[in-house]
Each structure stands twice: as structure tokens, then as C-alpha cells.
């Protein structure tokens, strides 16, 4: 288990001190795939470098299985970093070495005999789906293949924790999905704890069980991914989960009757809800704007409907929509005094 207690990190710049992290408290359980997400400059990379003590915190404690990493010597930290390995956006492979020798490198540094290191490296290249690339050089591989080699290298010392610092940011969506599937499989098969540092909510949505939202060096929200998606509390979270709202595209049009639906883990968004309401209630609503996404088998997001007619039609539509499970209804604009909030 990894515990961050009151973790802070400041840097001295020509313009004065910069607080990159401010009193961060997190607990990451063994075997989790844990996401840490924030926009550029939020402090994500500083946080991940503090976890493995590549950056020493200004204040606070990093505990790995109850051991305070801040009191360890440089030699002891080198031993810890064999248990807490890392992959990066830029892959960081040695271009003058073959894929096999890249994967062997941490084993050779740790004193593993050459033949044993080579056998382990070949097994890992098979694990990441590249058994035929052992004697090729990184420049001969695609970006996704290079990241697979980097993952194999990170696994060479049988670590307990894998840190992924924007590991898929340089990859196209299809390759990103493949790399995330590989990480998920490794997590399932080995029980390794994975910490995913990213600015992409889609990555968190696909692979993580829990997530922390970082803004200006502070954790503004933390919890299960499904809970964060269904009911984001912090403005930074809402901006990440539903960027359309942050940009104002889900604002009601002037005048008329608009009803905002919030899908809180519902299945209704995958059904022809508007068509059903038209058939059953005779109300032909139109979709003004929408931001819907799926997390597992559940649907989260918002939809803004234009309701034709007058107050009677609005009330009828609201009553129909409120009967849907896991759907909250709120009248945004109405004629007369029919409006109000529906839960």
C-alpha cells in the first residue's frame, strides 16, 4: 500500500517559490489501478516523482507498505526503485541497444547473471506481445511497440508498483486502447499496483478503479471513478468530465422550455428515451445539447431537451422523465411558474 501524508513540494525559481504540491493525502491500495488526473501544470508529474523519491518532498511523508521512503539512504532508495518502476510518455529506450538488451538492462544493473537476465527478458517480450522483436532496435518499431518494450523493461525486476507518467499521451487512440488493455492484463495476472498519471479522462474511464483530481497542486476530489463521473463535486472535476459544460455549450437557449437530464449511472441513455416519450406522451422533444459517456455498463452525463408546447406539456414531460431510474430532472427555463427542480 502507498500512503501520501501531507505531501508538499516547493521549487525555488527566479520569480520566487512555486508550490507544486500542497498537502496531498492519498491512500493507494495494493492491486489497484489508480488514476491521478489534472490539466497541464496541476502537479501530476511532480507527484509521481515524489512517490519514487526522484523528487524529495519539501514536507510530508511517502509510505510504501508502512516504510517511510524519506528516511532511506540513496542505496536503499535504489532498492526501492526496483519495486517501484516507471514508464514514460517518451518511452526512454536506449536507441543503440536492441529491444532484448533494453529489457535486460535493469537486471544487469541489479547483478543478475547474463543468461538468466536474457531468459527473463525474452519471457517479458513474449508477455507484451513482441517475442519476434528481441533483436530489433527501438527505431525500427512503432510508438506502441516501443511502449510495450518499455513496459517489459519496467517489469524486469518483478516490481510491486508500476508508475505510468502520461504513458499513452504520444499514442493514437487505437494504440492507447491496446496499451491500456495490456496494463490491465498485467495488473490482473500479477497483482501489481498501477498508478496512472494523465490529463485524459478517457484513460481514467477505461482502466482505473479510483481517481484523484489534482488542481494547482491540491487534490480537489477523490473516489471511485463511477462516483466521480456520476456526481462530480469540484469545478475542476466537472471541467474534465464534461468539458462541454465548461465551454458553455450545455447552456439553455434564451426563452422557451428546456429540461436538463442528469444520467447518474442509468441505462436510460442507451435507450430511445426521446422517441419513447413522443410515443407514450405525445411530446416530441428535441435535443438541444448533450454530453453522455459510458463507464462500464453505466451511463453518465447531461442532456438538455427542448420541450414544445406550454406549461401543461412541460409538466407532463417532467413527470414522465422523473419516473426514469437514475435520471435527475431540472427545468432550466419555462413559461409561467411551472418550473422548478425535480430529483
Describe this structure in words.
This protein starts with a strand and ends with a strand. The model is unreliable at 336-343 (pLDDT under 50). The strands form three sheets. The protein has a six-stranded mixed β-sheet with strand order 6-7-8-3-9-10, with helices on both faces. The chain has a five-stranded antiparallel β-sheet with strand order 12-13-11-14-15. The protein has a four-stranded antiparallel β-sheet with strand order 2-1-4-5, covered by helices on one side. It has 343 residues and is of the alpha/beta class. The protein has twelve helices and 15 strands. The longest helix is centred in the middle third of the chain and has 18 residues, at 173-190. It is 35% helix and 30% strand.
> Based on DSSP secondary structure assignment, what is the total number of beta strands?
15
Number of helices in the DSSP assignment = 12
Tell me the Rg in angstroms: 25 Å
Low-confidence runs: 336-343
CA-based shape:
elongated
Order of strands across the biggest sheet?
A: 6-7-8-3-9-10
Q: What structural class do helix, strand and pairing data support?
A: alpha/beta
Order of helices and strands: EEEHEEHEHHHEHEHEEHHHEHEEHEE
* Percentage of residues in helical conformation: 25-40%
Report, as a whole number of angstroms, the end-to-end distance. 39 Å
**Fraction of residues in β-strands:** 25-35%
Biggest beta sheet summary: 6 strands, mixed
Arithmetic mean of pLDDT: 86
